[in-house]
Write a structure and sequence with these properties.
Order of helices and strands: HEEEEHEEEEHEEEH
Radius of gyration: 18 Å
Distance between the termini: 49 Å
Number of helices: 4
Largest sheet: 7 strands, mixed
Structural class: alpha+beta
Length: about 200
């Protein structure tokens, strides 16, 4: 069995850290190796193996920074993955799949807008996330191809961190990034389950 890398995550949620430790253990059990310099996927985030003082260690991307910049503290990376699952559970839907480096379709004036709306229009592909981003206050017609462009979810997340927790919602879900966020399924507004993560985070919703 290969040496499991060290994890520095002082403020990670206990369940998030436990899930990640189990994930690394499964990789080792099946003969996987942790080679410094290599990257691997853990749900939505891409982590990196580095050479630490006592062997390999996990490095995580620094949130809010685009492009990627890696650091030792993995707390936020593990927490966002856990919260994405909590968000799906809040609405009784399955967890979708995509990664932070995959592309989303966006209107070209998105950064000039305030009222962002994210819609899961499909499943992930090799380089696409299945997400589309528009805005209620956009001046561009999203039906016109020339008004659209591809941007990575990580780029968008660095601009609007609140969208990160919704990125693993499945196809058919839509979120208006209001205060509080308005979540829709198949075109209809849905209410979070009582006592759920979303309900506790946004009690006025």
């Amino acid at each position: 069995m290969s040496q499991i890398p060290a994890i520095k995550a002082p403020t990670a949620l206990p369940e998030a850290l436990e899930t990640f430790e189990e994930f690394l253990g499964e990789i080792a059990d099946f003969g996987g190796e942790f080679i410094p310099g290599e990257m691997f996927r853990f749900s939505w985030v891409l982590l990196q193996v580095d050479e630490g003082e006592n062997g390999p260690q996990i490095m995580a991307p620094k949130f809010g920074v685009y492009p990627f910049e890696y650091l030792e503290d993995c707390s936020e990376a593990l927490n966002i993955v856990a919260r994405q699952r909590f968000m799906a559970d809040s609405f009784g839907v399955s967890v979708g799949r995509c990664t932070a480096i995959q592309a989303a379709i966006t209107v070209k004036d998105l950064d000039e807008c305030s009222n962002w709306v994210m819609t899961r229009v499909g499943r992930e592909g090799d380089s696409v996330s299945g997400w589309s981003f528009g805005a209620e206050d956009s001046k561009l017609d999203p039906e016109v191809q020339e008004n659209l462009e591809l941007r990575s979810l990580w780029d968008l997340y660095s601009k609007r961190p609140e969208l990160g927790e919704f990125c693993l919602l499945p196809q058919g879900m839509k979120v208006a990034l209001e205060d509080p966020p308005k979540v829709m399924k198949d075109g209809k507004v849905v209410t979070a389950e009582e006592g759920s993560y979303f309900a506790q985070k946004f009690p006025a919703s």
